[in-house]
Description:
The complex is a heterodimer of chains A (349) and B (385).
Chain A: E1 4-14, H1 21-36, E2 45-49, H2 52-55, H3 60-68, E3 76-79, H4 83-95, E4 101-109, H5 115-118, H6 135-150, H7 154-168, H8 182-186, E5 190-192, E6 195-196, E7 205-214, H9 215-221, E8 226-235, H10 249-258, E9 267-269, H11 275-285, E10 292-293, H12 308-321, E11 327-334, E12 340-348
Parallel strand pairs in A: 2-3, 2-4, 9-10, 9-11
Antiparallel strand pairs in A: 1-7, 1-8, 4-7, 5-6, 8-12, 11-12
Chain B: E1 5-12, H1 24-39, E2 48-52, H2 64-68, E3 79-82, H3 88-101, E4 107-115, H4 121-126, H5 138-154, H6 160-172, H7 187-191, E5 195-197, E6 200-201, E7 210-219, H8 220-223, E8 231-240, H9 254-267, H10 272-275, E9 278-280, H11 288-295, H12 304-309, H13 326-329, H14 333-349, E10 362-369, E11 374-381
Parallel strand pairs in B: 2-3, 2-4, 9-10
Antiparallel strand pairs in B: 1-7, 1-8, 4-7, 5-6, 8-11, 10-11
Amino acid sequence: MRDVAIVSFAQSNAAREDRNEVEILLPVVKAAVADSKLERSEIGFTCSGSSDFLQGQPFAFVMALDGVGAWPPIKESHVEMDGAWALYEAWVKIQTGEVDSALVYAFGKTSSGDLAEVQALQLDPYCATQLWPDADSIAGIQARLYLERSGRSERDLAEVAARSLRDAQSNPHAVAKGDFDAAKLLAEPYRSTPLRDHDCPANSDGATAMVVVAGERAKALCDRPVWIRGFDHRIDPPALGARDLTRAPSAEIAAGRAGVGDAAVDFAELSAPYTHQELILREALGLGDEVRVNPSGGTLCAHTMMSCGLNRIGDAARRLAEGDGDRAVAHASQGHCLQQNLVCVLEGE
Amino acid sequence: MANLCGVVGIGQTKYDAKRIDVSMPGLVREAALRALEDADLDFSDIDAVVIGKAPDTFEGVMLPENYLADALGATGKPLLRVHTAGSVGGSTANVAISLITAGIHDRVLTLSWEKQSESNAMWGLTVSPPFSVAVVAGAGGFFAPLIRSYIRRSGAPEDTGIRTALKDRQNALKNPYAHLRIEDVDFDKIASSPMLWDPIRYLESCPSSDGACAMVLAREELAEKAPTPAAWVHGMSMRSEPTQFPGRDSVNPVAGQLAARDLYRQAGITNPRQEIDCAEIYVPFSWFEAMWMENLGFAPENEGWKMVYEGATALDGDFPVNMSGGVLSSNAIGASGMIRYAEAAMQVRGQAGEHQVEGARKAMGHAYGGGSQYFSMCLLGKDKP
C-alpha cells in the first residue's frame, strides 16, 4: 500500500445557513487547497460526497462541481455517501498509482427540511417509509435496547452529552456547546424515550474539504504529515428487526481490518449522532475507557449530514498534526442505527 | 495498470417499462445472481460491492443501497455507492475495477440499476429546486439544441438520426434483454413518429426502463480460472468538465476527447477505428451516435454522420456500434453505462448471441452524463493487455 497523508483540511458548520450549498462549499475548498500548498492543477483527482435528497433536487453534486471548477477537464468522481467514503475512493485511486494526490469534499444542508423526517426515506420503501418513522424515534428504540442489554443508564448517556458539549467549547466549528452537568440534563423532558434533546444530534449546514498526498511529496508539504495507516468500511443489513441493534458488527469488522487494536490509541473521533451510539461504537472498536473520545465534541455537536464523517477524520488529523497524540482512530457512519461504518487509523509522522 | 482485472461474470435483467413482478431488492438480485452464475461463484466469493444509480429521486428512496445491502450479499462487506449522473453505470464499474487493480480486493461485484416505474423520471429531473429555476424539459429538451448545433456545423443529412434509430431498433430484436423490441420497425415508422423535441422524434429517443446490470470482476490469477474466458480490462478513464461557461463546446466536449485519448494511451491504441472491433456507446437520442463517433476519434470532426450513412456502425459494418440496441432500446438510467461495458465484455467473451460481432477481440464501453460533461470509458479485450 502507498503511504497517503492528509495535508490540509477545512470545514464549515452552522446551525442554519442562508447561503446555498455551493456558496458554503467554495470558501472551504479554497482554504483546503491553499493550505495544501499545491496548485489546483497539481491535484490529480477530485472526489466528493453529497445527497440529492438532502438538497431536494437531482444532481446536487453537478452544481457543486461547476462552482469548484473543472477546467481544463479533470479526473473526478462522486459518491452518494458521506465524504469519508469519497476520501476512501480517492485513497483507492492513489493506490492504483494513477494519481499521487486528491481533493476530497462534501457538503450537506440539513436545515432545508426536517432532517429526522427526511431520513425516514432511507427505510424500506414498501413497508416502513409509509409509517414515516423519524430518525430520532428509531434511535430511541436502539437506545432502549442498548441500555437494557448493557446495564448502562440514562445518566451514562447524559455524561456523554455533557462531556461532548464541554469539549465542543474549544472547537469553533461545533454548533452545540456549553458547560452542562449531567444531573441538569437529566431533568429535561424526553424527545424520544430514553433519549432527551441532548442525546440527539445538533443538525447543521456545512461543507468540508481535504487534500491528500502520497509519499515523499506529503513530507515536503507539511511539518508533521498525518498518515492513513488503516482504512476499511463495512455494512450491516438494513432491516431494523434483522440485526442486533445494540451492537455494530460492521464497525467491529472495519476496526479489525483497519488495525485499530494493533497499537495504542491516543484518541478517537467517532461519528455518533446519538449519545448511546458512542458507547456502542466504543465497544465495537475495542476502545478502552482510557481512550479519549471526540475531543472536538463530535457529530453530536455538529451533525452536518454527508460531511460529518469526513469531519471526524479531518478533526483527528488536525489534532495529530498539531502534535496532540501520535495515533488516532477516526470513524464515519451512515444509515439508521449505525448500519454502515468506516474506520480510518491515522498516525502522525 | 498495477494489477490486471478481468470481467468473469455478467448478468442483466430483462429491461421493461414496469417490472412490477419484482421489488427493488428483487430487481438488483436478479442481475447479481445471473452475474454470479455466469462466473460460477456465489455471494460468499465476493469481497466488496460497488453499486451505482442515477438520482435517488427516480425511486424516491434516499441512499437506497443501504436498503439493498443484504439483497446484494453485502452484509459484513464494503459497499460503495457511486453517482456521477448518466455516466454513473460506467464510473461505478471504473471504481470497482480500481479496487482490483489497486490490489485491495480479489473479487468485486459491481452493479448499476434504476427502477424508473417507482417514480417518474421527468418529475425526478425537474423538481422545483430551492435557489434556482426548474427547467421542466427533461433530458431531451436539454440535448435537442446540441443536436441542432451539430447539424448546422456538420451539414449532416436530416435523416441521420432516423437511420441510427432504425439500426439500433433492428439490433434490439436480436437482444433478448432489450426493453423496446419493435418487430415492424422501419424507416417510415420512425420518421412518422411524433416530434418530441425538434429534431428528436419519439422513436429516436430512449425509453424509461426498469432494470439492473451486474458484473463480477476478479484479479488476474482468479480471472484466469473463469469458466467462460474473462474479458480483460485494457484501460479505463473518466473526465469531467463544468456544465456551462463561455466558449464551452458542448457538442464535442473536451472532457470526452481527453478521456478517449487517455483510454487509448493506456490500451496502446494508436488507430482506434482500426484497432477496436466494436463499441457500445451511450446514445440516448439517435443523433448522439454521429456526435460521439467524432468526439471519440473514430471519425474526423463533422464526419461522424458518414459512418451512420455508410453503414459502418451497423452490425455487419466495419465498426459496429450498439450491437445490443443500445440506450435507445433499454434505458434503466443508472444501469445504462454499465450495460455498455457489460455488452462490450460479452462481445470479446463471445457471449453476445445473435448480436455477436464475429471475432471481436477489442471492444469499447462508453457512458456520459450531466450536460454532456461527465465521461467514463473502458476498453475490454479477449487477450490480456
